[in-house]
């Protein structure tokens, strides 16, 4: 029926096929890992660029004393980026949190100004209400 030589040849072909399959899976895993790392880096960098752009846009759109912190944060981040090539994560987080708190205080101020008590205290025609 089958002699030992034909069985060993079939075994060698199976081992070769399994080795090729394992090598393909390892290379696929390496490719997926590198792609995931690259996308993570691009997302992080894209978020930083978007936040910096929005800070600058917010500071420029309606020039006023209340938009000055946005403009200063934008100029600080851009200057730091230009000098050193990257912004330290701690500095970027601090700027992000400070601008978040400042923006939240603006939203709350506008929301609370809708209350009748505050509208009586600061009538809309006064300069300080703007």
TrEMBL record:
Tell me the superkingdom of the source: Eukaryota
Naming one, the record's GO cellular component terms include: membrane
Which key words tag this protein in UniProt?
A: Membrane, Transmembrane, Transmembrane helix
Q: What is this protein called?
A: Piezo TM1-24 domain-containing protein
GO MF entries: mechanosensitive monoatomic ion channel activity
Segments passing through the bilayer: 39-61, 90-113
Q: Provide the Piezo TM1-24 domain boundaries.
A: 26-130
Keyword presence, Zinc: no
Is Transmembrane helix one of the keywords UniProt gives this record? yes
